[in-house]
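@channel sequence for tomorrow's demo:
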Amino acid sequence: MADFFLPFTTGAIQFSWRDVVDIIIVAAIIYSLIRIMSGTRALQVLKGLGIILALAIIFSILDLQTVTWMLSWLLNAAAVVLVILFQPEIRRALEKLGGGKFFGVVIAPREDADRIVEELMRAIINMSKRKVGALIVFERKTGLKDIIETGTFINAETTSELIENIFYPNTPLHDGAMIIKEGKIIAAGCFLPLSDNKQISSELGTRHRAALGVSEVSDSYTIVVSEETGVISYMFDGMLTRYLDIPTLRDILERIFIKTENADKKPPVFKFRRKVGEK
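C-alpha cells (generated this afternoon):
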C-alpha cells in the first residue's frame, strides 16, 4: 500500500514538456468534473476524498506507516464505492461528454435554439396579452439547485403550451417561479429569495421582488409578466427593465440561447432600463 504514495516521497523530479502537458490535461479534467458535480451531493464527497488524499500524502511524508496504510486502503476502496453511490452523476457526466458539454462547450444545433426562443416568445406574449402572471428564471453559471428543490421537478422540453399551462391562474404551480436550464424546463413552483432593497417601488408586486432577489444573488436572467397590467419586465444583476417590447424581448432571449459569444457579458442598456425604485 505504501507504494501508492511513492511518487510523493521520492526526490526531485525532472520535468519535461510532456509533464507540463500531462498536468494541464489532468487539471482540465478535474476542473470539468467539479463543474459537472457542482450543486450535487457528489461534490461534497469529492471534497472529502481530496482531504483524505492530502492527509495521506502528509502522513506518508512524515513516515506514519499505520495511518498511511489505513488512508491508502480507504482511497483504494473509494473507487468502487463511488461507482455504486453515484451512478446518476456518472451517467450525467457521460451524457455531457457525448453531447459536447464536458469542457464547457455546448454543441447545440441553431435550429434548437431558434425553436426555444420562438416557444418562449409565443408563451410570454400570449400571457402578456391575457394578463397571466409569470416568473421565468434562466439559470447560467450560478447553480440554482437549492431553489429548484423548493419546487416541482419537471425536466421537460420548453414549449409554449407547457409554459402557459403551468402559469394558468389557479393551477398548482402558477404562483411560483419556473427554472429553465440549458433549454429545458427543469422545475416550476419554485420559491425565490425576496429582494431586501428598500427602494423598490410600491407598484412592484411579489413576483418582481422575487425576480430582483434572485438576480441579486446569482447571474441568472429573469423575465416577469405582470398579472395586473400584463407588462413584461426583465431583471439582471439587481437591475430592472420594464415595458419590454417584442424586439427587446427577442434580443434578450437570443442572448441567452443563441448569441453564446455575448453570454458572459452584461446586457445592453435598453430604452426602458432603470434602477430599482425608479418609476
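heads up for whoever presents: The beta strands are 134-138, 152-157, 177-181, 184-190, 221-225, 232-236, 239-241, 273-274.
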